[in-house]
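Team,

Forwarding the record for the chain on the shared tracking sheet. I've put the sequence and predicted structure together so nobody has to dig through attachments.
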Amino acid sequence: MEALKELKALLAHEVQMMHSAENILLAGLPLIIEKASNEELKAVLDMHWKETGMQVKRLEKAAEYLHISASGNQNPGMKGLLTESEKLTQQEGAEPLVDTALIVGMQKIEHYEIASYGTAAYLADELGLTEVADLLRETLLEERNTSSILGQIAQKNIIRQAAKV
């Protein structure tokens, strides 16, 4: 990353980092989906995988507005979060326990994304870059929705089943 000389450079960095993050997630999420046993969980993860593809496109559009390449920075944070989740997919155990572990890992990922998109949208707002802010907020809403749905699935049945194992 270049030296930060202005707020726009920080926003550009964040857009590139999230572009990397979403591409890492696009590659890793199918393994997590495959390991899930709860059908509702699988459906939500599959929906989010499809959304992630659209999020990559939005980040590319935001990068165009910023006159930068969307790629350029590797996101070690997302790589670490996904590696942690992938380690859980390699564990053997009762299905409710594995599903609970997958939700725990995905919630960490979702909260990382919520923080990143929320901050980046705020930066774009401060810079008067309405188009960029709108693109980032659209994704922020999807991330919040996914987190909420994962929480609801966990609370209504998966964690209760896991507690009985």
